[in-house]
Design brief:
This protein has 152 residues and is mostly helical. It contains six helices and three strands, in the order ααβααββαα. Strand 2 and strand 3 form a beta hairpin. Helix 2 packs across helix 5 and helix 3 packs across helix 4. The longest helix has 35 residues. The relative contact order is 0.15.
Length: 152
């Protein structure tokens, strides 16, 4: 195996380790959010993304980017959350072609109920992962991350 092959294998191993950490965290979050807040991780992500907006709304394209979903998957998810009366769609006053998605009062309330569940489950998951030698360096890197300003 040459140096280039070694570098490829190191990157591949890093990616597998990152995927293992992500899978573990997502599984822990899913279990906690479903049990305590009746939300999936992706549903929480939508509510959280909307809740972090100054005007409490986003265009569907922005929401798709924030959730890492395809436009069609985002539409289906928004439909489900709209059926649960957690969010609503409104036409953009400046551009009639634009549709915004925004939280309802029920969506805001559920988000406030779910946020501590999410945060606790994330902290517990990271603590568990930190005890595993293969995941500890990634968890340490996460703890060192600086907050990043989000843009829609």
């Amino acid at each position: 195996m040459g140096i280039a092959d070694d570098a490829v294998e190191i990157r591949a191993q890093g990616w597998r380790t990152l995927a293992a950490l992500y899978g573990s965290i997502e599984s822990d979050l899913e279990r906690a959010l479903q049990a305590e807040a009746r939300l999936s991780v992706v549903e929480y992500t939508v509510l959280d993304a909307l809740g972090r907006q100054d005007g409490w709304h986003m265009r569907m394209q922005q929401l798709a980017r924030a959730t890492a979903l395809s436009p069609s998957a985002t539409t289906r998810l928004v439909n489900r959350l709209e059926d649960r009366e957690l969010l609503t769609r409104v036409l953009c006053a400046d551009d009639r072609r634009g549709v915004y998605t925004e939280l309802t009062a029920a969506g805001k309330a559920l988000l406030e109920e779910a946020r501590p569940v999410h945060d606790r489950a994330l902290e517990e998951s990271l603590t568990t992962a930190e005890s595993l030698p293969e995941l500890a360096p990634l968890v340490e890197a996460i703890h060192r991350l600086e907050p990043v300003a989000t843009t829609a």
